[in-house]
Design brief:
alpha+beta; N-terminal domain of MutM-like DNA repair proteins; Helicase, Ruva Protein, domain 3; 2 domains; four-stranded antiparallel beta sheet; 10 strands; DNA-binding; DNA repair
DNA sequence: ATGCGGACCTGTTAGC
DNA sequence: TGCTAACAGGTCCGCA
């Protein structure tokens, strides 16, 4: 679930039910997330009023009048809004009860996610301070990628999945964007021309942008909280299609592992 | 500075 | 059918 579009969908789904409301109570059932849920969450969050909820990369930032709650969904996490109390289920690790009687419930089977508390400017938090630009904003450009990649021997796929280079490009979208741009995922990042980076930046923006729009579908029944099946799966050109024909040229898509991540591409269309 | 591999966990699926 | 191994949408950290 949690690629950037899902995180953005979560932000949009949660915001109307959380922004402007006071936290009544925090219930932590299991502190063992990626980092232990700090006691400050229990002691400082209750009584605080939630302001704007922002997203930085795949981190969600809940500004309050006393500090900022940082949430990451890891690989399997979700944050749902419940309008009435329901029995907590397996892996429902944290509840945040609000003054409007809504409940934010954090669930994460693999516990790769985190919930942290920080004072002051959250962008200075060590998890956020070294992050690269947002892929959908103006400052993410071909020029930027081209400059940053000079001298880099790492593959272009590894390069764009590096959150210090650009945030929010996960494995699925890295595969898809490279296919759209016609660039082999194995090519060294430092040996790609500015012209081709123009194609890649456009591809990243379009792939993420349209996936966020698809996320709007899930948005509607967000509060109902049904699971979200692969609503963009049919649009994927390469991810999860290893061995199947390229939709453009018909050649069998090749699947390799790059940095322990499954990588699928067309040897004809991507160079 | 860069690049690689390991680590953190559970759930699902492929293969024997 | 049942057991085991591999793999999964993330990303931080430590080491070479």
């Amino acid at each position: 679930m949690p690629e950037l579009p899902e995180v953005e969908t979560t932000r949009c789904g949660v915001a109307p039910y959380a922004e402007g409301y006071r936290v009544e109570k925090v219930v932590v059932r299991d502190r063992r997330l990626r980092w232990p849920v700090p006691m400050e969450l229990d002691t400082q969050l209750p009584g605080s009023t939630i302001g704007e909820i922002q997203r930085r990369g795949k981190y969600l930032l809940f500004a309050t009048d006393t500090g900022t709650l940082i949430v990451h969904l890891g690989m399997s996490g979700s944050l749902r809004v419940l309008t009435e109390a329901q029995q907590p289920a397996r892996h429902d690790h944290v509840d945040i009860v609000l003054s409007n009687n809504c409940l934010l419930r954090y669930n994460d089977p693999r516990r790769f996610g985190c919930m942290l508390w920080t004072l002051g400017d959250p962008s200075e938090h060590s998890l956020l301070s070294h992050l690269g630009p947002e892929p959908l904003l103006e400052d993410f450009t071909a020029n930027y990628l081209h400059q940053r990649s000079r001298g880099r021997k790492a593959s272009i796929k590894t390069f764009i999945m590096d959150s210090q280079v650009v945030v929010g490009v996960g494995n699925i979208y890295a595969n898809e964007a490279l296919y759209r741009a016609g660039i082999s995922p194995l090519r060294a990042a430092g040996r790609i021309s500015l012209q081709r980076y123009e194609l890649l930046v456009a591809a990243i923006k379009s792939v993420l942008g349209s996936a966020i729009k698809q996320g709007g579908t899930t948005l509607r029944d967000f509060v109902g909280g049904d699971g979200q099946p692969g609503y963009f799966k049919q649009q994927l050109a390469v991810y999860d299609r290893g061995g199947q024909p390229c939709r453009s040229c018909g050649r069998e898509l090749r699947e390799v592992r790059l940095g322990q991540r499954s990588t699928v591409y067309c040897t004809v269309c991507q160079r």
